[in-house]
Hints:
By secondary structure, the chain is an alpha+beta fold. The protein contains 17 helices and twelve strands. It has helices at residues 4-7, 10-17, 22-43, 50-65, 75-80, 97-104, 133-147, 185-197, 202-214, 217-220, 249-263, 267-283, 287-305, 311-314, 319-328, 332-339, 358-372, and strands at 157-159, 161-163, 180-182, 223-225, 233-235, 240-241, 349-350, 378-381, 387-390, 395-407, 413-426, 429-445. The strands form four sheets. Strands 7, 8, 9, 10, 11 and 12 form a six-stranded mixed sheet that branches. The longest helix is centred in the N-terminal third of the chain and has 22 residues, at 22-43.
Amino acid sequence: MIKINQLINVSAVIAFTFVIATPAAAKLNKMHKAVNSYAEKTAGNAAQDGNKRMSKSDRAKSLVVLHQEDFTPSNEALAANAFANNESVPENFSKSYKDLYAAYEHLDSYYFPLQPYYKYPILYALGEQQLIYPWARFLKEAKKILAFPVGTNLGDITIGLVGYDDGVTELVSADGQKLAMHADELFRYPMAARFFADPNCNESVWNLAMLLAYNNGRFRAVKAYTTAQNFGVADAKRGWMFPYSDGGECNEREALMKLMAREVVDIDLIAKCVLQLYQGMENEKDSTKKALYLIAGNELYKQVLMAHTDFSANTSKLNKQLMYYTRYNDTPEYSEIVDAAIVKPEPPTMALKPGALDKQLNAQVLRIIRQQYPDIIRVVVINDAWKVHTNGIVPTDRAVMAWAVYRNKKGKLEAHDYSFCQDYQGGGRYGALRYKGVGMTTVYVKQ
Length: 447
């Protein structure tokens, strides 16, 4: 069978829309316009040649209609892939392995350069045993990212390369060139392939939601790639090349998924998945999954459901989704859930050594700190002498630091540092001791 991207040109696409049912034709025509617009934008500066822009538009359209085609697996695929002729339907899909993998043979090589698909069983997550692998790999990466605090000096979560010499020996081109990809392609690539082959199923909509979450600001704030580019030489020392020709294919692929979901994926399915994500978040005990489901639910509602072509006609039956989104989008509850996934570094353990002023001030400091924090067990004044603060020449106050000891939520003894001071009264006199502020250090108390 001739590949679909060789069959479809602009006139053929227009003709195609008139031979299917009228509502579907209208949707597909609108989808093609959206794809044309998107392809023009993405071609922009990268390809000034008009023919190349048209080629990119055709390539995008081939992905849009891929799921509607009735492909037959090739003899080569049948020989190489045990599931290429398997007619069972995997859980949460609407198509059989046979139909999925037959479509994979016609994925456009601009967006999916690893071809033929059956030579790359890891990157396409082929077979029953690998069905869960993209999700498992994504969850592992999400756990690292969501556990990482934003706005610290700890650096970033770095996403490196996977390549031929890293155990992914399938990453080699037809002419023997060793290849490499960013490590997150181990889930981004198969999730996208599944979506274009079978968009109207739970699996694909959930995959889209996860990829939208992966590009959410919370994720972008802490993740960084070891190399910014995604084409050309990946690692000269290892002799690795990227398989992509332009470098933007991965992001463009996911943008097309979003466009397609708004136009051709059933709005009831989108709405159902939004509810599943929010309700899953409420029932989930694991803090990482809870935060992930919440972010994914918000992104799927905002970027797909609200922008769906059938949204206005269905608003009356989408009130539950609206309630969840209103409650959890950029609200204190949202922050609390997302922050709960952060894993803070364990504080050091140390013995609290009292200073010379401890005997004199301990009782006063304990009384004052308990007015702020009633659960404080004891205090340890650190200073051997008062620290005098001035505004240049004249004293303003004299201060001491003290450890305040308490039990954390796990029942373990912790201490945090606080400052206390006496304001200068003039004539060498200082006033009553008062609370001044909180320090930056937390430690476990050595017993």
